[in-house]
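Our preliminary data section would be incomplete without showing what the modeling component actually yields. Below, a chain of 613 amino acids is followed by its predicted structure, encoded as tokens that our downstream tools consume directly.
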Amino acid sequence: MSRKLLHTAVVLALSTLLGCSGKKDNVPILVLATDREFGTYTAEILKTEGFKEFRLDSLASVRVNASYLKRFNAIILAESEISPEAQQMIRRYVIQGGNLIAFRPDPELAGLFGIVPEGRSLAEGYIRIDTAAGQGGGLVPGPLQFHGSADIYTPEGCTILATLYTDRATPAGSPAVVTHTFGKGHTAAFLYNLPKSIVFTRQGNPLFAGIEKDGIPGLRGMDLFTDGWVDTTNNIINQADEQMALFSHCVENLHGFSGPLPRFWYFPDTLECLVTLTNDGEYKGESDFESQFRDVDSLGAKMSIYVLDADQVTREWVDKWTARGFEISGHPDDTREAGNPGWHTMDSALSAKKHEIFVRYGLDMHTVVNHWFVWCGRNSGGMQDFGAQARLEERNGIEMDINYAHYDMKSNQGPYYLGTPGTNQGNFTGSGMVMRYADVRGKTINVFQHFNSVYDQQYTESKDPEGFFNCFKGLVDRSLHNEVYSFVSIKAHNDEYYFSKTPLLKMLTYARSLDVPVWTEKNLLDFLKMKDQASMSGMSWKRNTLTFTVLSSVSHPEGLTCMVPLTEGAMEIGNITIGGKDHPIVRRKIKGRDYALVTMAPGVNYEVSAYYR
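Predicted structure:
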């Protein structure tokens, strides 16, 4: 009997033997993952993409059995070792009508995805998305870098959403992302480890942690992106975010067999870009800061300042500007060991600055930029860990880090190894999103990474004020008009205000003309924490009506927005009610898909109903 006929016979036999019983869970998606190979970082990707309707569990859990799996509309399986019993359980789930997404699946499960293993792999390659396919529609085709290894398979009945490339131009002759129908169920597989690749794209090469690589004095996060780690020609397309968007489309499509799946929008209200402004207050004091603060305030913008020398800044001045919505935080200094920052001395620098800011000003230190961007790359045992600095910040109660910045002047890596400056400067981290760090063991760290994309010193040293403005304009314009969505961060040192004043005020004026707000990092942190805490429950799809509850207990001045799929089959949303009353919606095409955006004030629970006709 041929392999294909045997496969069909097994499917039919199992379908006959197995029933489709089991009560559905209130939570529609189950993520089966451990920290190993960054599997639990899947939860961070889902939350960033606005999906809050999931449960995180492990195949090793005593709860996880065939009956438990049947309660979920879709399962996401992270890269993991799977026992023969677990393999059979997963097969049964799909055959009975379950929907499965897997990252670098066990080759023993290949039949579920319509592929045949070849027993070899490709490391550090690219993918190209088929934008003509349903899930790829509206996305950038690529080539998009991935980090880690992808397994090589021969297609056998699957639909190919993306293909593997060994470099930017050379096809590997193998799929990268596939979908398939198996029994009564549906599957999708990323044949590389997406969560691991996202972490490595955003944080850099873990093998370079704690090693001086770029020849610029001091160990920094940017050392992790040397030796060609980042394909800078992709900086302007946010290549990590495009792959997360493809994953989101797969989640929506597979859940779509059970009805439309709502999620939260990236930005406050219905904004398509948001800007933050920071200032390292290093060798000057409040009399110098005052004029810069007044300039920023006059244009309706706010700013975070990271104070190096608290002796030059009084409590009265801090109280005045925090009352106006500015953020005052600390600028920890471990430059005395900049070439080899250690765990304990960096911990001391952070805790001392945190204590100083609290004693002097009565303020907690929630966000941070280190002097010289010094980045500890080794854990308490001296082992390499590209998340060590973030782990230290978590230990000290810091919740957002802005130490990754675009600065590569006078590097031994060649000119502009982090990417072209000016209008075409983008995000070398591959992402415009603000997401949490992970450590080398795969554990997510409760500290957000916000990339500082518009850094004044890069342009001060090249004497290019127009490039400084154009860098900002390019990022904002692509976020607003090309769906290269970005939380854009500007750095304008007070020491260099003689250089940055004219282009900075031009940036703030430009943002204001486009109704793009300019916030402090603390305000952005508060928004992200609010969005992170909000959830959806009680989802039901009956009689052409989607109902669910938005649970939100943390308030914020700006709105929390739900994205509800505008269409379901041949039907389209006619109206949406909140608490039984019609609510205004904004119709928008996002990454090739149509949504109805519904904005509500956070801090309150809402009963939402979407009526399709």
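Residues 534-612 form one domain. The first strand starts at residue 29 and ends at 32. Preliminary results of this kind motivate Aim 1 of the renewal.
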